[in-house]
Amino acid sequence: MSTDLFARHRETLEQALRAIRTREYWSAYPEAPSGRIYGETANADGQAAFEARLNRPFPIDQPGTVGQAGAETSPYGMALGITYPQVDPAALLPAMQAAMPAWREAGPDVRAGVCLEILHRLNRRSFELAHAVMHTTGQGFVMAFQAGGPHAQDRGLEALAYAYEEMKRVPETALWTKPQGKAEPIAMAKTYHLVPRGVGLVIGCSTFPTWNSYPGLFASLVTGNAVVMKPHSGAILPAAITVEVAREVLAEAGFEPNLVALAAETVGEQRAAAELALRPEVKIIDFTGSSRFGDWLEENARQADVYTEKAGVNCIVIDSVADMKAVARNLAFTLSLYSGQMCTTAQNIFIPRDGIPAGEGRLTFDEVAGAIAGGVRKFLSDPERAAEVLGAIQCEATAERTDRAAELGEVVLAPEVREHPRFPAARMRSPAILRVDAREAPTYGRELFGPIAFLVATDSTAESIERVRATVREHGAITLAVYSTDDAVLAAAEALAMEVGVALSVNLTDGVFVNQSAAFSDYHATGANPAANACLTDSAFVAKRFRVVQSRRHV
Amino acid sequence: MSTDLFARHRETLEQALRAIRTREYWSAYPEAPSGRIYGETANADGQAAFEARLNRPFPIDQPGTVGQAGAETSPYGMALGITYPQVDPAALLPAMQAAMPAWREAGPDVRAGVCLEILHRLNRRSFELAHAVMHTTGQGFVMAFQAGGPHAQDRGLEALAYAYEEMKRVPETALWTKPQGKAEPIAMAKTYHLVPRGVGLVIGCSTFPTWNSYPGLFASLVTGNAVVMKPHSGAILPAAITVEVAREVLAEAGFEPNLVALAAETVGEQRAAAELALRPEVKIIDFTGSSRFGDWLEENARQADVYTEKAGVNCIVIDSVADMKAVARNLAFTLSLYSGQMCTTAQNIFIPRDGIPAGEGRLTFDEVAGAIAGGVRKFLSDPERAAEVLGAIQCEATAERTDRAAELGEVVLAPEVREHPRFPAARMRSPAILRVDAREAPTYGRELFGPIAFLVATDSTAESIERVRATVREHGAITLAVYSTDDAVLAAAEALAMEVGVALSVNLTDGVFVNQSAAFSDYHATGANPAANACLTDSAFVAKRFRVVQSRRHV
């Protein structure tokens, strides 16, 4: 069974290996929530599967279960009523360790085959996952399907491919034959074992419970480690489905299902992640969430390698534009998508106070501000489109922050409480846009998570660039965008991006947005500024998840 | 000039890339200190070059020089009388940072060419380096030539090859073309910049000032970082020559020589490494030395990635042997070589107190002990050979520890103060071998650096294995050897090696010794036990030394 899986998915793996070499467009899992691809009944089946989960315990038969936890509420209004196993790490983790020797012994090909089958089955359950992601994160359905399903699966596969390639660079054996002049050469047979580190802990976030967790999950698992998933207390269900699928495939392939486990807790408890993170069995931690807890993990979980994606302050520099309408359309979508609750959404848009050159003729600051605000207003004027694009606000604190946003600057666009056409209790807000002066760095220079954007008036593009440099150096960022028709400014932006270690998007006006990060092509985060200590998709993310232990003997 | 260098050394790099893929025997730099290879006058020239260094300042024209430091004394008896620039990090490090943009911009091929030329010139100066290493570390001349010259150069090239391959896995550009059904595809041009981390700090040890430092030096340099070498105050000269060669090649290739700099200090000061390690400019630290300072670096230099090789307690398990004489001959060399001052030398030899099966018939514990002690005695009975193999003791503390070794257990072989045939003031000691009981773990379970070995009497091989497990888990190890004619015992040793993450040598009796680690084939350290948090020769050692920063724009 387990070698069959490798053969079955080998072509997918080989394509993924080619894709990470070229970083050209490729995707393993179709992003369209289409019955023609996923089956005519897939949507209805997925919704039914989701609904069948509600108001009952989610069954995962894992060791160390000491109770039930979980009290998720959909940002669209209803309580999910699902509970999950609450675990005693002192009982669970040793059981996970005990499962590892056979998993290590199986080798990279068998492990890759099992992981690819897990991804394949997750893909087949993308509609169920979409509903689960939608009703925990607040994402609109199509986004929940794409980001929570195929895009997350692609990111998992991408990390798997990097890890597989890294393992395959270590030969299994070598015959070492050292010449000795005219004497017989010395010959030794050497064996190189790939040895896992221990239990990997994946700590998820409330907004992207699968997309941000799958790279760590699959990178750790394929390299021979066990993985315990500790989802955010507000978004457990997508992780629980993932764990269920993984355990099912592992068991069918003849492995101990305890190689993957779930550690859930109820909203407001906030103890389980820290407790797990300090356990001696835990040797790898993947974390997405607040800078406060991410920094705490880096500082305190010293027995583990810690990979963090934390808060950042993403910036845009507008210097000059060929077509302000096109820019405004692009930014309207960027600022609206999932109500700004993406780690890649821009918060600060730096614009010279004296205005900018544009294809339409010179535009004043207010005209640029008006174009952006007008673009958002127009884009969200259709309630159906607004509901689908904005989705709902994941947590009350973000909604409250948005409601108070007018205090932060001169209001260019006031946030609105919106009503969802189908979920009247949904927690919906449209974006707030504020004008501030560049000197007000204490206001705009920190992350204000949610649909809050600043138009920052600067003396010049040179000042804009300096302000971005200072902001990103101190607070980090995952994305940076620049709009300019001046090659010198674009070169300065490119140099800035390298200096502060942030991905740059240049003059986005068509169907690509600064907050989109495409698997197999876009490197997500860099590890080179305070927003993240790792990139989710490179060799450095995977290379330390196993070690090489050799033995040698005379031949 | 700089692209020429890549072309000139390309074949060497390609062979190195093949070697790290197969881990079969390969070496770039001939290990024989032979006039036929290095030129008939190479030895005399090297000695003259070394002697010309003595009793004067070593000239390195680098920024931030605030005085002179250094007071090295040869373990063979004479003061070297050389001083080196003492630096102000606040002046030196910004100058090194300023040199990095052009170095980054040059790209991996040009940087690799320059680094390969540095290695090539170091190789041509192997005789001079041999004298420098001999008269700082105390190694015998041939060992100083090999370990300090070609073997160190091979290790540098090996790390360079891993880093080069890792960089080359990132494409420079990609055309990302995403299909849009019947509409025009979305096309974006992406550029992937390799960005260095900052200044690398290489903190050397007193016993292998080049071998243990070159992997970090070349891994950091080729990935675009600047590197400051902080050698041990007792072994500055080999690092200073290295820095001199690197600066010379960098300048000739049109780069700022300050990409490589030296930070020296006088014996007993012990401030410079800690001061440098906490500087914000320093983003990578490679350290070889004590566990105390290595742990301190890991704990405190939080702005940097820290790679450490620290103390360990290497073990041998003797279960059964085909030929005790052959085993004893092998161990005699292992225990004698460089007076046990290698990070790979065995300290604890576990033997069942009831004796072992042997090809010669059953041997009692005392017979095994006698064979080992007799082997050492016989091997060192020739004063010329003893002088060449033992070398001298690097520091007085190690000599004193050896002199007091008889207090540690029942003396099987008493250490002797030896006289060197050509250096009457040399600090020489022959190995001490003590018998202890397995229960005396507080005595043998810590590193006692130098020529001190324990024969540990256990109830059984099963207990031997348990004792090794406990020792390595707590104190770490870089090597483990087992002697057994029983496949079940060999399998248990292999499982133990994987569990505690230590390289295993099986039944070494011919011309390979547990303390030898061959570049391009043996992985040095694992990063999986307390003796080292990294392997010196794998992807994990290099992958984080640069980051990928992308930019993208519509086509």
Automatic annotation (TrEMBL), chains A, B:
Its recorded name reads Phenylacetic acid degradation protein paaN
Q: Which SUPFAM superfamilies match?
A: ALDH-like
Instruction: Describe the location of the Aldehyde dehydrogenase domain by residue ranges.
Output: 92-486
Q: Which organism is it from?
A: Thioalbus denitrificans
The cellular component terms of Gene Ontology attached to this UniProt record, alphabetical and capped at eight, are: cytoplasmic side of plasma membrane
Q: Name one GO molecular function term.
A: L-glutamate gamma-semialdehyde dehydrogenase activity
Keyword Oxidoreductase attached:
yes
Give the highest taxon in the source lineage. Bacteria
